[in-house]
UniProtKB/TrEMBL annotation:
This is Acetylornithine aminotransferase. It catalyses: N(2)-acetyl-L-ornithine + 2-oxoglutarate = N-acetyl-L-glutamate 5-semialdehyde + L-glutamate. It comes from the Bacteria. May also have succinyldiaminopimelate aminotransferase activity, thus carrying out the corresponding step in lysine biosynthesis. Its main location: cytoplasm. The modification N6-(pyridoxal phosphate)lysine is found at K241.
């Protein structure tokens, strides 16, 4: 497997440790038939888990009926998905569909420029994608450095710091771009009231508040969107990952005046709003509602967090996050070793930082798998001879 991979695929992600063959719910199987509990789901992409019958049905029915025909025409799944997303957000707005999180943030950045202002503020440690604009918004220096010069006009401030935000935003600021919880930085949760303050400060200066909910949205934190827990409404929200149910689908949503920033000719993408991915998106939303997955994510997430804390394990310093986006913090930089041991034991977890393990399982994760994971967790820190 390694040799074929080395010869044919670019080394963007490091040497793969598994070749996966199939999945069902929160379980995946490798080429040798070994089963794993997927507590990572391809970095939070899959809300309903693997091979959910609702996705299989929606996608196969739609592709048999009509695939993509471009964006000069509209289709019912795209219209319906846009309406459903706005309905769930509870605010009037408009949706632009694309294919990934980075692309959703590129659109947000271009919308910010259309305000006529050029300055954009984002956060240190924030992650918004790998294309040049999204990378510019990203506040992780090692990822940015090899690609300088990046897009001009973007600055980064400490995450969760209201005073820094007050100092950075002025009447020339087009937008403040921020994640409700910084996923890639290690599930960093800002202090209570931070998003409310961000809303107040951006509104005072007429700057857009852009929330990147690519990771936190679509039920992962226990509500449809994380901003709903803060009781605010952003001007722009970006989505991807969970919304597609495993298919490439992203969305940039403008609320209020931001809904009409784009005019014909400003922006577009060939596969955005294709009916097959939109049908998958509708199946995701329907199933989250019909299977009660918001409540489920919230309660199983709390159970995992409480279970991890109750271990009082010397290697573990704490657990943070919301719903099924959790970071288990470690006293030492042993996350890679622990994740490797977990994989051997049949659990896929993500060493997102040297001292943080991230869990972002499908929302359908069963309680029994969650409990078994917590029970097995101490063994991942044992020294193997
Ligand atoms: N924003 C956030 C918050 C993310 O976590 C990610 C992916 N980890 C992205 C944007 C980029 O998404 P994509 O990989 O689909 O471009």
């Amino acid at each position: 497997m390694t040799t074929r991979w080395q010869q044919s695929m670019m080394d963007n992600y490091g040497t793969p440790t598994l070749q996966l063959e199939r999945g069902e719910g929160a379980h995946v199987w490798d080429a040798d038939g070994n089963r794993y509990v997927d507590l990572l789901t391809g970095l939070a992409v899959n809300a309903l888990g693997h091979a959910h019958p609702a996705i299989v049905e929606a996608v196969s029915t739609q592709i048999a009926k009509l695939g993509h025909t471009g964006n000069l025409y509209v289709n019912e799944p795209a219209l319906k998905l846009a309406e459903r997303l706005l309905d769930l957000a509870g605010e009037p707005g408009k949706v632009f569909f694309c294919n990934s999180g980075a692309e959703a943030n590129e659109a947000a950045l271009k919308m910010a420029r259309l305000t006529g202002r050029t300055k954009v503020v984002s956060t240190i440690g924030g992650f918004h994608g790998r294309t040049m604009g999204a990378l510019t918004l990203t506040g992780q220096e090692p990822k940015r450095a090899p690609f300088a010069p990046l897009v001009p006009g973007v600055s980064h401030i400490p995450f969760g710091d209201v005073a820094a935000l007050e100092a950075a935003i002025d009447d020339d600021t087009a937008a403040f771009v921020v994640e409700p919880i910084q996923g890639e930085q290690g599930v960093m949760v800002p202090p209570a009231g931070y998003l409310q303050e961000a809303r107040r400060i951006t509104a005072e200066h007429g700057a857009l508040l852009v929330l990147d909910e690519v990771q936190t949205g679509i039920g992962r934190t226990g509500t449809w969107f994380a901003f709903q827990q803060a009781g605010i409404v952003p001007d722009v929200m970006t989505l991807a990952k969970g919304i597609g149910g495993g298919l490439p689908l992203g969305a940039t949503i403008g609320f209020g005046a931001a809904a009409d920033l784009f005019k014909p000719g400003h922006h577009g993408t060939t596969y955005g709003g294709n009916p097959v991915c939109c049908a998958a998106g509708l199946a995701v939303l329907d199933t989250i509602a019909s299977e009660g997955l918001l409540e489920h994510a919230s309660s199983v997430g709390k159970e995992i967090a409480a279970g991890v804390e109750a271990l009082h394990h010397p290697a573990i310093s704490g657990v943070r996050g919301a719903g099924l986006l959790l970071g288990i913090t470690l006293r030492e930089a042993v996350s890679a070793k622990a994740a490797a041991a977990a994989q051997k034991a049949g659990y896929l977890i993500n060493p997102i930082q040297p001292d943080v393990l991230r869990l972002a399982p499908p929302l359908v994760l069963e309680e029994s798998d969650a409990q078994a994971f917590v029970a097995a967790l101490p063994t991942f820190f044992e020294e193997t001879p």
